[in-house]
Amino acid sequence: MSSSSYYVPATSKWPIIAVLVMGMLAVGAGLMMTQGSGLILLVGGLVGVAWVMYGWFRDVTLESMGGLYDAQMDRSFRQGMAWFIFSEVMFFAAFFGALFYIRVFTLPWLDGEGAKGITALLWPDFVASWPLMNTPDPAVGGPDAIINPWTLPLINTLLLVTSSITLTFSHHALKAQQRLRARNWLILTLVLGGIFLVIQGIEYVHAWTELGLTLQAGIYGATFFLLTGFHGLHVTIGAVILLVLLIRLIKGHFTPEQHFAFEAGAWYWHFVDVVWIGLFLFVYVF
Question: Membrane-spanning regions, if any (predicted)?
Fold first, then answer.
């Protein structure tokens, strides 16, 4: 395409299908959580989302490989990915904000401190502390113990930080047209991400079965699993993205000048790594 051309994508069925399957997924998940039904809708929604992602990304890849995109489309993709990551930043900011509000305001109020310290009348014997091992209401039990941050969480931190480094090496190798090195560094990044997920699974089993640290273990258990669980989901999504990039790299896609899909996947992976550092500090350490 000439530099003055403006590419208008062909009519696509994927947006409307995406709306339908995501609605199915949301309804199914809601029914499962509230009524214990809706499994068919939930599974159908998950399969539908996977199908839409595969088909839509396949079409975009074919258009890119067909030389249909120009500088204007490259800017559009970059802006779109930047806004997507910004939305993910806000997603995790909401959970970190809830954690901050609980620790800095709610617990001290229940202990009689601050502007709303009168709420201490609800549970006069409550003493604020974090991690919250003894909840204000005895009917809601806290965890028996917490995870030592200097064991599995520290190992996972080192794994993710290292994976960002190996992914950067892969990116630089691709820009230097060293495709074999780029592939090998990308494979190592995927291996590190896989080990991270395995270790987090081991940590969850240990916390749930031996430490009494569950979703029902007071506000500490709820915030712990919401933050680390959603992060684990994002690591899984990032690993799928990197796997697709690896397949494309092996197939000969990408050039040193044109490889925004690779860059977008790297942006996402680095974002996930930064979020984990925040989790390690504010969920495990402090």
Answer: 12-32, 39-57, 81-102, 153-174, 186-207, 219-246, 267-285
- 81 and 139: one domain? yes
Q: Is the peptide bond before 9 cis (omega within 30 degrees of 0)?
A: no
Question: Which residue, 133, 95, 276, is CA-closest to 285?
Answer: 276
Q: How many CA atoms lie within 13 A of 90 on its CB side?
A: 6
pTM as predicted:
0.88
User: Does residue 3 belong to any structural domain of this protein?
Assistant: no
Question: Which CATH number characterizes residue 64's domain?
Answer: 1.10.287.70
Asked if 162 and 192 touch (Cβ cutoff 8 Å), the reply is yes
Same domain, residue pair 34 and 163: no
Q: Where residue 91 sits, what CATH number does that domain have? A: 1.20.120.80
Q: Answer positive or negative: Cα dihedral of 96, 36, 234, 18.
A: negative
- Do 116 and 28 share a domain, yes or no? no
Consecutive 10-residue runs of the chain (286 residues): their mean pLDDT? 60 92 93 87 93 90 83 88 96 95 92 86 89 87 92 97 97 95 97 97 96 92 94 95 94 90 96 96 94
Neighbours of 132 (CB within 10 A): 20
How far the first Cα of the chain sits from its last, in Å, is: 54
